């Protein structure tokens, strides 16, 4: 597609679904979904791309990647451009139509966008993935969905999950899930009096839940371990200078268990939770 045609098609998408709100994707020539500038999310994109490439231990084009709540598709499109097989799931039609537009313009047959609720993530439907991107979605879910969602991610993941999320700095709310206590805070998503249309129009928020639950860092780490991730790492580099203090990037690996050959006494004991 030549750049004049891309601009024309982009105008049509904007007329139907509104302008791009966050994901600035280079479409060729001087055409970007937002504009010829670094609009913000590219800094996070650089961190996520580097983390996946460094940790996967295989070329990107050998990976099957799932991008959960993919918004306008920046991360999914990036990995598909590197040759990965990518599925993006997103709950809101305007977001996913913008993502599909970018995929179509760039001619990426290895990229698929599906409109669905990530709380219904299901291995029977989607299969398994080497890498799962859980970016900016965990903190839009409430109890108990936030915990069952972690378990569903572990089910579809055969490698690792990258979690980029807000955490609670203070533990002002507690809850119990499957017999385990968690602490965190409540985050307001929508006015309780808002209509389904109002909620649908809020393009970055939860789909329907009025509040969400942000676990503390410790509760999140314990929840990841209980969901089946065998080790968890925090990413500090590449830097994101403007990242809020209550937001972190974690890599949770779905590995196996090993026998502690030199320490059988410890090996016979269960691994403790992190104390809150
Ligand atoms: C803050 S944006 C983050 C998007 C993107 N992953 C990123 O990191 O830039 C949250 C996204 O989650 C989507 N979303 C919220 N709840 C969802 C759900 N239950 N199922 C699918 N998508 C959801 C929203 O429509 C929005 O696109």
State the low-pLDDT regions, or none: none
- Mean pLDDT equals 97
- Discrete helix count: 9
Total domain modules: 1
Structural class: alpha/beta
* Widest sheet, order of strands: 5-4-3-6-7-12-11
What global shape is seen? globular
**Strand segment count:** 12
Main beta sheet = 7 strands, mixed
Highest CATH level, the class? Alpha Beta
Q: How big is the Rg?
A: 19 Å
CATH fold group: Rossmann fold
Q: Considering the protein shown, what is the CATH homologous superfamily?
A: Vaccinia Virus protein VP39
- Helix % is 25-40%
The N- and C-terminal alpha carbons lie at a distance of 55 Å
Strand content: 15-25%
CATH architecture: 3-Layer(aba) Sandwich
Elements, N to C (H/E) = HEEHEHEHEHEHEEEHEHEEH
Name the ligand types.
S-adenosylmethionine
Which labels suit this protein?
276 residues; alpha/beta; Rossmann fold; 3-stranded antiparallel beta sheet; 9 helices; 12 strands; binds S-adenosylmethionine
